[in-house]
Amino acid sequence: MPFPIEQKLVVAVSSTALFDLSQEDKLYKTLGLDEFRAFQKNNRNNLPKPGAAFPFVARLLNLNNIYDDEQPIEVVILSRNHADAGLRMMDALSHYGLNISRCFFTAGEQPFKYIESLDAVLYLSTDKDEVRNAVKNGYPAGYILPCETIPVIDNSPLKIALDFDGIIADDEAETVFKNTGKLEVFHKHENALRGVPLPPGPLMKLLLKISKFQKLERKKAETMGEYTQMLQISIVTARNAPAHERVITTLSEAGVDVDGIFMMGGIDKRRVLDVIKPHIFIDDQITHLEHVAEIIPCVHVPFGIANIEDGDQAPISEFKKATQDSFPLTSTGEKLSDDQISHKVDMLKKLIWKHKAEIWSDSDSLEPIQMLDPDEILKQLGYKIVESSSLGVFEHSGKSYEVSAQIDRESNVIEVSSQEPVVSRTFTLAHELGHALMHAQTGLHRDPKPKDRSNFKRMPVEREADKFAALFLMPEKLVKQEFMRIYMVEKFSLNDDRRYALNPSNDKKINEMIGSQFGLAKLLAKKDNYNRQGQTPIQSLNEIFNVSVESMAIRLIELDLV
Fold first, then answer.
1. Do the Cβ atoms of 186 and 265 come closer than 8 Å?
2. Burial of 29 by CB count in 10 Å (0-12 exposed, 13-18 middle, 19+ buried)?
3. What is the DSSP letter of 155?
4. What does pTM read for this prediction?
5. Segments forming the whole domain that contains residue 168
6. Staple partner for 112: which of 67, 85, 134, 159, CB 3.0–4.6 Å?
């Protein structure tokens, strides 16, 4: 029967991480492979001492003693040694009582490529270059630093401490800080997204699997009374309020409950690590580890923006670069004409069409109208779109206004109020796209609307963004094309036949509606059964262009179709 490795918590470790083979490593680098292999054979009875990963591995394997039948923990050796040189290491495993039976000897080949075949959630190695290569290829690998003080090997509980950003979560938030260098921008970004969990980082899967055992441990403690938990997990992060809530949100969404979360807010992490005394501490920034490694086994995961080296920087997308180059922002107070806005929209559409294969993997199967997606275009330009339950209400001149959306350029976040009708969301995002590409406001920009949805005088930048949205979402050529397909005229004017086609049941409300130009335009915008009595309804114009009936009606009037 195949070994159910996918059901285990699997950790892979190199022989040099598990045992202190520093002398042998120097021998290999100075005298070569043959001398190294000879040394290993001749010193088979001279067993190596524990290495930096030993305390973590030994205690991790001790968890199998709690679950004797299941044996849920598996540690696998991934070694670049030849098998004959590995005999000394296998003897050491037996000597130290480590229940490790699976070893991969790759005879000089980098072994990290076997991580996936083992379903390992962590690979520890003393080879910096191998670890960096593994992380670049998406593997959960870490470089374990030399540790001057190896913790005493005993049966005490396993203590694991982990950083949050770049380890449990990805580097999205860290990127905001690195790109701006402003802590207040980072805090504003994280506060705006406090209810949105961060994408998983390289070791989220490790935390998920370990936390399952922690929950079982707690159940044992509840039922057995005197039971001592053998697993403790701590998050030690440089974050502090108001960036704290997103940590909680992310862990809660993942179903993870840790023993401690330490929001250091710039205080040296060593201060709290000295108290916790973890058997392993994992961080994505080497500067947080080098002085800690004097007393605690430390692991560096070279993931994300904190570890970009010369030549590593991911190139900006061609679409984003071309868009940035093509859209100089207007200064505050400068007004744009309709022709200028139309020119900008046309430029954007050309760029989208030119770079469609870069934006959508299935671009060949998309209709042109499907590419007019402000949500996707904003994401391509680096904006994060978040839905919030409320963005605030304020009073002005005796009228209540609610914020429908807001854009923050510094943190590249666009928030949309969930109070905004669903049919208006696409237009709202296109409106924000207009701000992003045309207006040079810095910081937070809010778009208010009267709570009673009445008309009100819009500021010039808002009217410009509305115009941009209308031209982007409802292009003249496509609107006229769809209008002709449905109504079979270039301009709709009422006669007896068309009046009947619109209102075969002579509904009084419809008769009242078509008595005005805007009322007729609204009816034409939402009509899905024109001249189709007894037939399957078709998509209405507002459904085709994914906008509200009112926005579609205004566009029909602008294009002189009604």
1. no
2. exposed
3. S
4. 0.71
5. 158-307
6. 134
